[in-house]
TrEMBL record:
Transmembrane segments: none annotated. One of its GO terms (biological process) is ubiquitin-dependent protein catabolic process. It comes from Cladosporium halotolerans. This is COP9 signalosome complex subunit 3 N-terminal helical repeats domain-containing protein. Residues 445-486 are annotated as: Disordered. Keywords: Cytoplasm. GO terms for cellular component: COP9 signalosome. Residues 50-286 form the COP9 signalosome complex subunit 3 N-terminal helical repeats domain. Coiled coil: none annotated. It holds the Pfam family COP9_hel_rpt.
Length: 486
């Protein structure tokens, strides 16, 4: 048994830091070939009454440890709960300490273990999913390349009723998807440092199942649910717009896009007091299709923006079954409560001081209910005012405060925004570099360069593209068309 253990401990070599990426890849592929020659039984056997998982270091011998761990998991099955719990603990240690460069070469094994861990956590009823998110972030600290594991983590966190467990992954922006590298593109060194993780998380790497549009739409829609639950409406809006703006063939409209639009309308009312402006890059046909099946929500938004509380209540009661079927009953009710608060906030546009009795008359509430509403708004910092108590609720005085004109964004917000911009620039730079390596880009660049040459025919330099009438992306296409020949 000493010989197999020696083979497992052969990597990494003593002077691994001095190896170039190409040398590292060569040695690791040779190491993997030597591991494949070992009989399967050695991975579950003991050496001197110690298991391989005790003799191997998950942070140093990550590949051998992972291979032994997967073999032990397959050998146990679902029979021995005590042994499963022990393996889950060892998996937790591995996911917190593995060498992220080594496991790039064994993505299938890493994926198998991650899948087992999420099923095991469900089987044991564990609500702490930090082991899984830690694993994803250790593999790819940016989490910028979407995988089906992203979706699985969000699904599991919602199924367990602990949506915040998915936030470490959801808070990371997606910049890329696993891609199939073209044969014309030179292969990249897997162990090298890359600005974007899709250099080693590809469709062939094993870290993800095949990504299809439904995976992406569901990820952003479920992610929006999480952010709505945590009252992070800005992030929820971004996720919902990702769904609404998702490109489709032949203007096909997904039911997930319709669902996203309905929630998009409601969180606009909650966070802004009005509907969000329509996304300028939306497909006009898709937008028309979505709005045609969501007219009830447009009616709600219209009543809300007019601050017509009674009409909003009537719309809410009439469409009760619609909101229930869509799972939006609570959001619609919250928007109703928000409408009252926005009606109070609108008063400061006209008045500086008002008695509570006047505010109550404006809202159509009793003085007691009005006083409670005002107190709640000020405690939540949604109303910048001072309330002076009177002998009775209606004798109280509400004094609005003028917003400060010198307020600036906190330094932390500016730093966070700067960091986001830097990350985006790096992602764009990497995407441009990859685009320039493709055969199609080289052909187009060559053709454009030839057409721009001084001795080129003028006819060859003309833009011969033609946009047919009515192909604009705006949602109001065709409404103001003119006959230019008249």
């Amino acid at each position: 048994m000493a010989d197999p253990l020696g083979t497992m401990l052969a990597f990494p070599p003593d002077k691994v830091k001095s190896l170039s990426p190409t040398q590292y890849d060569t040695k690791l592929h040779s190491y993997l070939a030597s591991l494949e020659k070992l009989p399967p039984s050695v991975w579950t056997k003991s050496v001197d009454n110690k298991s391989l998982l005790e003799l191997l270091d998950p942070a140093v011998n990550s590949i051998a440890y992972l291979k032994s761990l997967v073999n032990n998991v397959e050998a146990v099955g679902n029979k021995d709960r005590a042994r499963l719990e022990e393996l889950y603990d060892q998996t937790s240690i591995f996911f917190a300490s593995f060498d992220p460069v080594q496991v790039r070469f064994v993505g299938n094994l890493w994926h198998m273990l991650w899948d087992w861990a999420i099923k095991c956590s469900s089987h044991f009823g564990l609500i702490d999913l930090s082991v899984l998110s830690t694993a994803l972030l250790r593999l790819d600290p940016s989490s910028a390349t979407f995988t089906t594991l992203h979706l699985s983590l969000v699904q599991q966190s919602l199924a367990l009723g602990t949506p915040t467990q998915a936030l470490p992954i959801l808070d990371k922006n997606i910049f890329a998807y696993p891609q199939t590298l073209s044969k014309s593109v030179p292969a990249e060194t897997v162990s090298d440092e890359h600005e974007l993780s899709n250099a080693f998380i590809t469709s062939e790497s094993g870290f993800s199942e095949k990504v299809v549009p439904e995976h992406v739409l569901e990820y952003y829609l479920l992610g929006a649910h999480v952010y709505i639950g945590t009252r992070n409406y800005q992030r929820a809006r971004l996720f919902l717009e990702h769904v609404i703006l998702f490109p489709t063939q032949q203007h096909c409209t997904s039911t997930l896009q319709v669902e996203a639009f309905k929630k998009w309308i409601l969180i606009g009312l909650l966070s802004e007091g009005k509907s969000f402006p329509y996304p300028r890059t939306v497909d006009a046909v898709v937008w028309k299709n979505i709005k045609s099946v969501a007219k009830a929500y447009d009616a709600l938004a219209d009543s809300f923006e007019k601050r017509d509380w009674q009409k909003y209540q009537a719309e809410m009661d009439v469409g009760a079954q619609i909101w229930a079927d869509d799972g939006n009953t609570r959001l619609v009710a919250e928007a109703g409560h928000a409408l009252v608060k926005y009606r109070v906030s609108d008063l400061q546009k006209t008045y500086a001081v008002l008695p509570v009795s006047r505010v109550a008359a404006h809202l159509g509430l009793s003085p007691e209910e009005t006083l409670s509403t005002l107190t709640q708004m000020m405690s939540q910092e949604s109303l910048n005012a001072t309330l002076t108590q009177g002998a009775t609720p209606e004798e109280g005085i509400l004094q609005f405060h003028q917003p400060s004109l010198t307020a600036t964004a906190p330094q932390s917000d500016l730093e966070a925004q700067t960091k986001r911009i830097e990350t985006l620039i790096a992602a764009v730079r990497d995407a441009d570099r990859r685009l320039q390596l493709t055969k199609e880009h080289v052909a187009v660049s060559k053709r454009n360069k030839s057409a721009a040459a001084p001795d080129a025919e003028l006819a060859d330099q003309m833009d011969l593209t033609w946009d047919a009438p009515g192909t604009s992306n705006g949602p109001n296409v065709g409404e103001d068309d003119e006959d230019i020949m008249s």
